[in-house]
Amino acid sequence: MRTHEIIVLFRRMRSYLLYAVERGFLAMPQRLQAVCAGSLSKILPGGLGKGMALWADTVRGPGVPPVLTFLRRLVRRVRPNPFGTFLWNVVVLWLVRGRNTRRKWLRRNVSYPALIQLSLTTRCNYRCKGCYADGWTKNEELDYAVVKRLLDEGREYGCTYYTLLGGEPFIYPDIVRMFYDYPDFYFQVYTNGSLISLETARHMERAGNVQAMISLEGFEEETDWRRGKGAYRNAMRAMSNLRRYGVPFGVGITVTPKNIDTVCSDAFVRELIDQGVLYMWYFWFQPYGDYSRTDLILSGDQRYRLWRRVNEIREQYPVLSADMFNDYAVVGCLASSGVSLNITPSGWVEPCAQVHFSSENIKDAPLRRILQTSPFLQGIFDFHRRGDRRCLAQECGRELADLVERCDARDDTGGRDTKALLSVAEVMDKQNFYSREEMDDFPDPYYPLRQFFFDCVKPSDGAEA
């Protein structure tokens, strides 16, 4: 047996062992889980010990905590290899060991993103209304050699989690190769699902280090209105293929006044659970380029309603749900806090996949050097440094447009997104938005876990090991 085959076999055996241990642990009575986790918290070092202490507190309370219900469903739905690989690559390597790596570099005044959005290609087989990637130059793809250089650099700084975007990521010819080439990384792929065949799902299970996030706008009527006829059926077919191979998957939902009633309904949540969905990520609609439909922006009351509804779903259903903008307010905007950034298909370094402005290209310099020397990116980070946690795209339009002008940054959409930013700002001026305190006037059952997560991805220099 060749060395490579032995390594692959070892990784698969490790995943099966982790699966068996976790399945047995989650099946224990809560009181016994609390005792075991409490004992382990005194033995395990650093983040692992803190995580065990947090879990002991979580299961020690009255009733069954929602996160335990979700994890028990997760371990039943997902095959051993993807499940064990997720535990090792995400929890151990990225969150816990990665946290220590990030702290080490912070002590040297080097800040590097914990996760990177990697837009692989502009090509897509759909033409969705208001797509954030619609303004980019067409038919461009990141050369795989550039991708590998970026991933190799990221490993050194504890960045081993990548969100793959497009266009349609599964059009990218090297995407499956990437899963196999980087077995110690984890990839979250946002996709319309139309290209997830049984063969693709089989590769995803074998690699183990990937989960799919399938884009939906509601049921068939709402999804096909935005994404084209047949989009909903294609998404359902992808879910069926992923279920067959036990690959974890969720949905990404863009919320507008047109579909908020549908995507917040019990019927919609139950249907997705029946289809095997494990994650529901809700995103606010953001106008881009020529499709500046400001009438599709959520009002302050609708944002508040969505946030409350997401927490109700967390309490009532075994699916992990998130209001991506409000949840990230715990640590602040992921772009300005330096937690994440986006690489475009042509290599430009953007603060976020929803903020299409840049001044440097990874084809010209390593990302670490760009982060340290870019006046534009340093201006982005200044929002967080002065305590501003708002979303740059949704809530800081005028300030962001001013920064773009001062730094002579390029509008990656040829000027259209700058106009869209100012149009959004005019709408926001007339809105009545809730304060952070008003948004947090009811319990979030996942709050301690979210705090732990954000402490791992954005640790302070003085944080304990």
Could you name the key traits of this structure?
single chain, 465 residues, alpha/beta, two-stranded antiparallel sheet, 21 helices, 52% helix
Overview of this protein structure:
The protein has 465 residues and is α/β, with parallel strands linked by helices. It is 52% helix and 11% strand. It contains 21 helices and eleven strands. It has helices at 3-27, 30-43, 46-60, 66-77, 80-106, 144-156, 175-181, 198-207, 220-227, 231-244, 260-263, 266-274, 300-316, 324-327, 367-373, 375-385, 392-395, 397-406, 416-429, 436-439, 447-457; strands at 115-119, 161-165, 186-191, 210-216, 249-255, 279-284, 320-323, 340-343, 349-350, 357-358, 410-411. Strands 7-6-5-4-3-2-1-8-9 form a nine-stranded mixed sheet. It has a two-stranded antiparallel ribbon with strand order 10-11. β8 (340-343) and β9 (349-350) form a beta hairpin. α5 (80-106) crosses α21.
Write the SSE topology.
Blueprint: H1 3-27, H2 30-43, H3 46-60, H4 66-77, H5 80-106, E1 115-119, H6 144-156, E2 161-165, H7 175-181, E3 186-191, H8 198-207, E4 210-216, H9 220-227, H10 231-244, E5 249-255, H11 260-263, H12 266-274, E6 279-284, H13 300-316, E7 320-323, H14 324-327, E8 340-343, E9 349-350, E10 357-358, H15 367-373, H16 375-385, H17 392-395, H18 397-406, E11 410-411, H19 416-429, H20 436-439, H21 447-457
Parallel strand pairs: 1-2, 1-8, 2-3, 3-4, 4-5, 5-6, 6-7
Antiparallel strand pairs: 8-9, 10-11
Helix pairs in contact: 1-4, 1-5, 2-3, 3-21, 5-21, 18-19
